[in-house]
């Protein structure tokens, strides 16, 4: 065999040894990883009964003080974790029959936690609806106060045609004026706008004068926008 052939054969042999070693070590590592995972799984199965009872105790303790939605969700999750752990108990484990009975017990407890959660959610929804209803009543009362002032100042509706809140805002009031508004002296307009602003602020935002806004509207035109102190925001 020539010298070149000997060199090629040596390189090939070295490559075989190298890659064989690489794949051999990789195979060994994969086998070791699989073995360790199986050992861990067996340990979890062996400890499942005790772990499940501990989780169940945690759930029962948490349920005794739970009041909020978040707390009842946590209680439910703990019961679910305990149930999932009980399901790891092997059929040949001496604790298997007791584990099956505990699963039924914990499922009932988890269902009770969900029922308490739903009751709490319904309670909060009812409270929110009541708050919204009160807020709506407050807005209606505020508009009614403005309407009463308009009626007292202009019973024939020559100047003021009506008032209502703007869409999507409980703090912006639209006052619809008639053609006679344009004939008023500026000082009279300023007086009425000041009175509107004072009443609207007292009704809607007593502690925040800048929050209550007035829109004076004639037909499809905006005559002006003012804050509750009568300061012009837009002509």
Give the key terms.
235 residues; alpha+beta; Methane Monooxygenase Hydroxylase, Chain G, domain 1; 2 domains; 5-stranded mixed sheet; 4 helices
Blueprint (SSEs and pairs):
Layout: H1 3-65, H2 69-86, H3 96-153, E1 160-165, E2 172-177, H4 186-204, E3 213-218, E4 221-227, E5 232-234
Parallel strand pairs: 2-3
Antiparallel strand pairs: 1-2, 3-4, 4-5
Helix pairs in contact: 1-2, 2-3, 3-4
Describe this structure in words.
- The chain is an alpha+beta fold.
- It has two domains: 3-128, Methane Monooxygenase Hydroxylase, Chain G, domain 1 (Up-down Bundle), CATH 1.20.58; 154-234, no CATH class.
- Helix content is 67%, strand content 12%.
- It has four helices and five strands.
- It has a five-stranded mixed beta sheet, covered by helices on one side.
Outline:
The protein is of the alpha+beta class.
Q: What's the structural domain tally?
A: 2
Could you say what the CATH topology of the largest domain is called?
A: Methane Monooxygenase Hydroxylase, Chain G, domain 1
Give the CA-based shape: elongated
Mean pLDDT, to the nearest integer, reads: 80
User: What would you report as the Rg, rounded to the nearest angstrom?
Assistant: 39 Å
CATH top level label of the largest domain: Mainly Alpha
Report the structural category: alpha+beta
